Request: fold
Amino acid sequence: MNKELREFRRLERVCLEQAALSTMDLARSGLLKVADDCRIAAEAIEAQSPRGAFTGAVQALRLAWSATRTPNRH
Reply:
């Protein structure tokens, strides 16, 4: 899945670069549409990927910390 994500991001970048260099409106418009499709595909892949181990660890630490914390008594 990482390989697919990297490839869609690379294609998006290439299309955006080529659109910026294009002198023809039709070509530029087509490249921008393809870049947008690649971005949407990459975002869909990112949404399906499981959360990273680091994020999970941080959330577990936050929960543990909040459970052991004593409330302020003012």
About this structure: The first helix runs from residue 2 to 21. The helical segments are 2-21, 25-48, 53-68.
